[in-house]
Amino acid sequence: MEGTAATDAGHQRGPRLSKDARPGGRPPGSAQARSSAHARRRGRRENLSGYLFMSPWIAGFLLLTAGPMAASFYFAFTDYNLFDTPQWVGLKNFSDMFADARWQKSVEVTSKYVVIGTPLKLIAALGVAMLLAQSRRGQAFYRAAFYAPSLIGASVSVAIVWRALFTDDAVVDRTQQLFGMNVGGWVGDPDWTLYALVALTVWQFGAPMVIFLAGLKQVPRELYEAAEVDGAGPWRRFWSITLPMISPVLFFNVLLETIHSFQIFGSAYILGGQGNPCGPADATLVYTCYLYQQGFENSRMGFASAMAWMLVVAVGLVTAVLFWSQKRWVHYEETAR
């Protein structure tokens, strides 16, 4: 009887309410929904703030990089002289370019400069970096002193001074005469002018030197100690330990300096001398120098644009070859595991 009465009282009170559905409570999931909506609004505000901070770079990229590149690509297929309306000529600029003897000369000079200047610069940078990697007094001063040419080496004033050093009866010529070499000034000689430009490039080894120095600091000293115990000499330790361990840094420097070598312009233009830009007998007629002459001296902007895009293709191919070759000589730590 007591159980029946309790059951009847329960029926009279009605069904029990769940905790989430009790009077005055919130619908299921409403707190989570509001939290999610708030998170989305906050995310949109943060994204908007990020785009606002990036807007100067985006505007600069569109107006100063992407826009000119698109215009240059169009001009490469036109006859354009900076003053008249571009006239569509198709592939004529490219066919004229391949048949141009001076264009072929510029390709030859640039290739020679890249093949000679880039390895010498990297060898000098690595050699000095290995010396600076050793603990010694005044190390910070030496690092700054060796890095300084990289900051000022590309300026016009330094190129003018460099040209003065390599003219007839200047410092370099007199030093050669002390050793019985009567070569004369390098700048005025078509056979030697390019090497004066290479010497200026090698002198600016500071930037790759700093990168090499950072890589050398990461090589474990235990490897050298173990090699010494096994009787390995300095050259053996260099070839078997140093080069493999810094090969990623070496690859980065090779890639970066190769691209920079293709872009050489100011120094090559200045070393030619007043009234004789790009060297005597086109000795320093690098690719960008001839591009400048065609575009801004001869007002053949369509032809110059075609040359610019051929340079982009050439640099892209060289970069692709370097990335393909790294599998054979670049050793990453993940691969070693």
From TrEMBL:
<feature type="transmembrane region" description="Helical">
    <location>
        <begin position="50"/>
        <end position="77"/>
    </location>
</feature>
<feature type="transmembrane region" description="Helical">
    <location>
        <begin position="192"/>
        <end position="216"/>
    </location>
</feature>
<feature type="transmembrane region" description="Helical">
    <location>
        <begin position="301"/>
        <end position="324"/>
    </location>
</feature>
<keyword id="KW-0812">Transmembrane</keyword>
<keyword id="KW-1133">Transmembrane helix</keyword>
<feature type="transmembrane region" description="Helical">
    <location>
        <begin position="237"/>
        <end position="256"/>
    </location>
</feature>
<dbReference type="InterPro" id="IPR051393">
    <property type="entry name" value="ABC_transporter_permease"/>
</dbReference>
<keyword id="KW-0813">Transport</keyword>
<keyword id="KW-1003">Cell membrane</keyword>
<keyword id="KW-0472">Membrane</keyword>
<dbReference type="Pfam" id="PF00528">
    <property type="entry name" value="BPD_transp_1"/>
</dbReference>
<feature type="transmembrane region" description="Helical">
    <location>
        <begin position="113"/>
        <end position="133"/>
    </location>
</feature>
<protein>
    <submittedName>
        <fullName>Sugar ABC transporter permease</fullName>
    </submittedName>
</protein>
<feature type="region of interest" description="Disordered">
    <location>
        <begin position="1"/>
        <end position="42"/>
    </location>
</feature>
<comment type="similarity">
    <text>Belongs to the binding-protein-dependent transport system permease family.</text>
</comment>
<dbReference type="InterPro" id="IPR035906">
    <property type="entry name" value="MetI-like_sf"/>
</dbReference>
<feature type="domain" description="ABC transmembrane type-1">
    <location>
        <begin position="107"/>
        <end position="322"/>
    </location>
</feature>
<dbReference type="InterPro" id="IPR000515">
    <property type="entry name" value="MetI-like"/>
</dbReference>
<feature type="transmembrane region" description="Helical">
    <location>
        <begin position="145"/>
        <end position="165"/>
    </location>
</feature>
